[in-house]
Amino acid sequence: MIENIIGKRYAEALSSSIKEDSRLSSALENLTDICGIFQEDSRLARLFSNPAISDENKMGFLKDLEGQIEIEPEVKNLLALLVERRKILRLKNILEFFQVTVDQRLGRVRAQINSAKELSNKQIEGLTESLRKITGKDVLVETVVDESLIGGIVLRMGSLVADASVKNRLAIMKRYIQKEEVA
Questions:
Q1: What pLDDT does 183 receive?
Q2: pLDDT at 34
Protein backbone atom coordinates (compact mmCIF):
# COMPACT_ATOMS: atom_id res chain seq x y z
CA MET A 1 0.00 0.00 0.00
CA ILE A 2 2.68 2.51 1.02
CA GLU A 3 4.70 1.50 -2.05
CA ASN A 4 1.80 2.57 -4.25
CA ILE A 5 1.52 5.95 -2.55
CA ILE A 6 5.26 6.53 -2.86
CA GLY A 7 5.34 5.33 -6.45
CA LYS A 8 2.40 7.46 -7.49
CA ARG A 9 3.73 10.63 -5.86
CA TYR A 10 7.17 10.37 -7.41
CA ALA A 11 5.70 9.42 -10.80
CA GLU A 12 3.35 12.41 -10.77
CA ALA A 13 6.17 14.71 -9.68
CA LEU A 14 8.38 13.47 -12.51
CA SER A 15 5.56 13.86 -15.02
CA SER A 16 4.75 17.39 -13.91
CA SER A 17 8.44 18.38 -14.07
CA ILE A 18 8.54 17.46 -17.78
CA LYS A 19 6.59 20.14 -19.61
CA GLU A 20 7.04 18.91 -23.19
CA ASP A 21 4.97 15.83 -24.02
CA SER A 22 7.57 14.88 -26.63
CA ARG A 23 10.14 14.18 -23.87
CA LEU A 24 7.87 11.96 -21.79
CA SER A 25 8.58 8.85 -23.86
CA SER A 26 12.32 9.39 -23.50
CA ALA A 27 11.99 9.70 -19.72
CA LEU A 28 9.86 6.55 -19.65
CA GLU A 29 12.49 4.73 -21.67
CA ASN A 30 15.18 5.96 -19.23
CA LEU A 31 13.30 4.61 -16.22
CA THR A 32 12.60 1.32 -18.02
CA ASP A 33 16.30 0.89 -18.88
CA ILE A 34 17.44 1.73 -15.35
CA CYS A 35 14.90 -0.67 -13.81
CA GLY A 36 16.15 -3.33 -16.22
CA ILE A 37 19.71 -2.78 -15.02
CA PHE A 38 18.57 -3.14 -11.40
CA GLN A 39 16.69 -6.36 -12.22
CA GLU A 40 19.62 -7.85 -14.14
CA ASP A 41 22.09 -7.32 -11.31
CA SER A 42 20.79 -8.20 -7.83
CA ARG A 43 23.97 -6.76 -6.29
CA LEU A 44 22.68 -3.26 -7.03
CA ALA A 45 19.81 -3.68 -4.57
CA ARG A 46 22.33 -4.64 -1.89
CA LEU A 47 24.55 -1.70 -2.84
CA PHE A 48 21.76 0.86 -2.60
CA SER A 49 20.21 -0.61 0.54
CA ASN A 50 23.52 -0.79 2.40
CA PRO A 51 23.73 2.13 4.86
CA ALA A 52 27.52 1.67 5.14
CA ILE A 53 27.95 2.83 1.53
CA SER A 54 27.87 6.62 1.29
CA ASP A 55 25.36 8.49 -0.83
CA GLU A 56 28.32 9.93 -2.75
CA ASN A 57 29.40 6.43 -3.80
CA LYS A 58 25.84 5.58 -4.78
CA MET A 59 25.61 8.78 -6.82
CA GLY A 60 28.94 7.86 -8.40
CA PHE A 61 27.37 4.66 -9.69
CA LEU A 62 24.51 6.67 -11.17
CA LYS A 63 27.00 9.04 -12.82
CA ASP A 64 28.71 6.00 -14.39
CA LEU A 65 25.30 4.89 -15.61
CA GLU A 66 24.87 8.25 -17.35
CA GLY A 67 27.95 7.40 -19.40
CA GLN A 68 26.21 4.27 -20.69
CA ILE A 69 22.78 5.72 -21.48
CA GLU A 70 21.60 9.25 -22.13
CA ILE A 71 19.36 10.23 -19.21
CA GLU A 72 16.87 13.10 -19.22
CA PRO A 73 17.74 15.82 -16.66
CA GLU A 74 14.45 15.33 -14.78
CA VAL A 75 15.17 11.60 -14.45
CA LYS A 76 18.67 12.40 -13.14
CA ASN A 77 17.11 14.70 -10.54
CA LEU A 78 14.62 11.98 -9.57
CA LEU A 79 17.39 9.41 -9.16
CA ALA A 80 19.43 11.79 -6.99
CA LEU A 81 16.37 12.49 -4.84
CA LEU A 82 15.62 8.78 -4.50
CA VAL A 83 19.19 8.06 -3.40
CA GLU A 84 19.09 10.94 -0.91
CA ARG A 85 15.77 9.75 0.55
CA ARG A 86 16.75 6.06 0.38
CA LYS A 87 13.87 5.21 -1.93
CA ILE A 88 15.82 4.09 -5.02
CA LEU A 89 14.63 0.51 -4.52
CA ARG A 90 11.06 1.75 -5.16
CA LEU A 91 12.04 2.58 -8.74
CA LYS A 92 10.07 -0.29 -10.29
CA ASN A 93 6.91 0.87 -8.54
CA ILE A 94 7.55 4.45 -9.65
CA LEU A 95 8.03 3.21 -13.22
CA GLU A 96 4.65 1.45 -13.20
CA PHE A 97 2.84 4.61 -12.12
CA PHE A 98 4.89 6.80 -14.45
CA GLN A 99 3.93 4.60 -17.39
CA VAL A 100 0.24 5.11 -16.55
CA THR A 101 0.78 8.86 -16.17
CA VAL A 102 2.62 9.12 -19.49
CA ASP A 103 -0.08 7.11 -21.26
CA GLN A 104 -2.77 9.42 -19.86
CA ARG A 105 -0.91 12.56 -20.91
CA LEU A 106 -0.27 11.20 -24.40
CA GLY A 107 -3.85 9.94 -24.80
CA ARG A 108 -3.03 6.28 -25.22
CA VAL A 109 -3.84 2.97 -23.58
CA ARG A 110 -1.99 -0.32 -23.36
CA ALA A 111 -3.49 -3.66 -24.22
CA GLN A 112 -2.09 -7.14 -23.75
CA ILE A 113 -3.40 -9.87 -26.02
CA ASN A 114 -2.71 -13.44 -24.98
CA SER A 115 -3.35 -16.03 -27.67
CA ALA A 116 -2.86 -19.75 -28.06
CA LYS A 117 -0.83 -19.22 -31.25
CA GLU A 118 1.21 -16.42 -32.73
CA LEU A 119 -1.05 -13.74 -34.22
CA SER A 120 -0.37 -12.44 -37.71
CA ASN A 121 0.42 -8.76 -38.27
CA LYS A 122 -2.94 -8.38 -40.01
CA GLN A 123 -4.78 -9.81 -36.96
CA ILE A 124 -2.86 -7.54 -34.59
CA GLU A 125 -3.54 -4.50 -36.77
CA GLY A 126 -7.25 -5.38 -36.91
CA LEU A 127 -7.49 -5.75 -33.14
CA THR A 128 -5.52 -2.55 -32.61
CA GLU A 129 -7.78 -0.61 -34.97
CA SER A 130 -10.91 -1.99 -33.28
CA LEU A 131 -9.59 -1.02 -29.86
CA ARG A 132 -8.64 2.41 -31.17
CA LYS A 133 -12.22 2.95 -32.38
CA ILE A 134 -13.70 1.74 -29.09
CA THR A 135 -11.43 3.78 -26.81
CA GLY A 136 -10.86 6.81 -29.01
CA LYS A 137 -7.17 6.63 -28.04
CA ASP A 138 -3.96 5.29 -29.49
CA VAL A 139 -3.48 1.70 -28.41
CA LEU A 140 -0.12 0.10 -27.65
CA VAL A 141 -0.52 -3.64 -28.09
CA GLU A 142 1.67 -6.33 -26.58
CA THR A 143 1.09 -9.90 -27.69
CA VAL A 144 1.90 -13.00 -25.65
CA VAL A 145 1.61 -16.62 -26.76
CA ASP A 146 -0.02 -18.80 -24.09
CA GLU A 147 -0.56 -22.32 -25.39
CA SER A 148 -2.61 -23.23 -22.31
CA LEU A 149 -5.50 -21.20 -23.77
CA ILE A 150 -6.04 -23.99 -26.36
CA GLY A 151 -7.55 -21.42 -28.76
CA GLY A 152 -8.99 -17.89 -28.84
CA ILE A 153 -7.60 -14.82 -27.07
CA VAL A 154 -7.59 -13.03 -23.72
CA LEU A 155 -7.49 -9.24 -23.94
CA ARG A 156 -6.35 -7.12 -20.98
CA MET A 157 -6.63 -3.36 -21.11
CA GLY A 158 -6.19 -1.61 -17.79
CA SER A 159 -8.50 -3.30 -15.30
CA LEU A 160 -10.71 -4.75 -18.06
CA VAL A 161 -10.35 -8.36 -19.16
CA ALA A 162 -12.15 -9.96 -22.10
CA ASP A 163 -11.64 -13.70 -22.14
CA ALA A 164 -12.64 -15.31 -25.43
CA SER A 165 -10.44 -18.37 -25.03
CA VAL A 166 -11.45 -21.98 -25.52
CA LYS A 167 -10.06 -22.71 -22.05
CA ASN A 168 -12.51 -20.19 -20.51
CA ARG A 169 -15.44 -21.47 -22.55
CA LEU A 170 -14.72 -25.02 -21.38
CA ALA A 171 -14.53 -23.84 -17.76
CA ILE A 172 -17.91 -22.07 -18.11
CA MET A 173 -19.42 -25.17 -19.69
CA LYS A 174 -18.04 -27.33 -16.86
CA ARG A 175 -19.59 -25.06 -14.19
CA TYR A 176 -22.91 -25.09 -16.04
CA ILE A 177 -22.93 -28.91 -16.22
CA GLN A 178 -22.03 -29.19 -12.54
CA LYS A 179 -24.92 -26.89 -11.60
CA GLU A 180 -27.33 -28.96 -13.70
CA GLU A 181 -26.16 -32.20 -12.05
CA VAL A 182 -26.70 -30.72 -8.58
CA ALA A 183 -30.18 -29.51 -9.44
A1: 62
A2: 93
